[in-house]
Amino acid sequence: MPFYSKDWRDPGEAWVKTDEGWEKLKVLECGKRKRCSSECSNSSEACDTENWNSDTEVEIPPHCHITLKCTREIAGFNALGEAVRRLDFRNAVKDRKRFQYICALLRMLVAHRGITSLPGGAQRLLLQMMEEVACHVSDSQQNLNILRSLVMHLQEIIYQENQKCWGKPLGSTSLWKGHVETIQRIQHIANAICISGPGPEIRPKLHDLPEECIREILLRLADYSDLEASSAAWSLMSALVAEQRIWRELAHFHFTQEQIHVLVQKEKHIQDDGTTDWKKVYHALRKTYGLREDLQYTEILSLCRFCRCLFWPSAGHPCIADQSPDFRARLKEAGCLTESQPVPPAQFLKYFSL
Hints:
This protein is mainly alpha-helical. It has 17 helices and 6 strands. The protein has helices at residues 25-31, 38-42, 80-86, 89-92, 99-113, 120-140, 144-163, 173-192, 211-219, 224-233, 235-241, 244-254, 257-267, 278-289, 320-323, 325-334, 345-350, and strands at 15-18, 21-24, 63-65, 302-304, 309-311, 340-342. Strands 3-5-4-6 form a 4-stranded antiparallel β-sheet. The protein has a two-stranded antiparallel ribbon with strand order 1-2. Helix 1 packs across helix 3, helix 5 packs parallel to helix 7 (144-163) and helix 12 runs parallel beside helix 14. Residues 31-56 have low confidence and may be disordered.
């Protein structure tokens, strides 16, 4: 039986009514980067939206404390929906540094694990993120291949659910009906995208750039598949991608000097003129060691080793080490020099019971 009176057993959560329903105030602190006054946050009663005014706004970087291991003293679990809100994933879609990371996470949830096994609130939140991705791709006219891949997985989910004889996704029938409508809107946005080239008055165009500029553009591509696609798009790019410098720089970007030295001495990819075939060296290194996930994204989530907090490195987070200079000094004396570690999308999903 629920207990409604003010009591020490009450969890003391403050709730705020939003357009998407009631949400905990502590989640909205990071999700909307706002915080109510101390009187509202300390109260166990529900907080009204009237308390949210510009005088009490405080900038709080998106962060989320997680439980890595349950013990006698620490018992808890991590909720995917709460973490997505706290880390402000919906607004992170519009950030070009975080876009690839968010899309990789969505691809894993849709393709490998499936959103039908997630709680209803998490399903709705992830589909809203996909709709944000579709709107962002439509406005920027970039990364259309990523959106099409997500749409194909969503269509497959609907087809599989319609073929089931029994058993429905988690959540109510009306909730799943809303999901289908959201997926149809995403498909409509994806089908309506028409990439238009620059007008004739805009100069210079890509074909007008000198060969040195095109080479510098190719040197800044970190994915070998982008290089192969570029070589198929234009004959000049094809000639530049065939140069050894492009693949040599790519190999040195993804792998250490020791790894490259060991493989070159072992397999000896030598051409007829006596030079090293760096394209074969790169692919051999990729098959032997694999590609580091933290190098595939411009910005990646990090886990603070001190306070067990997930955060974006460019925004930072309120760490316990910053609140106590003596604590940081003791950590340096103990040899704890690495304050945070990168969290790839696959590792991020392992923190939750999916």
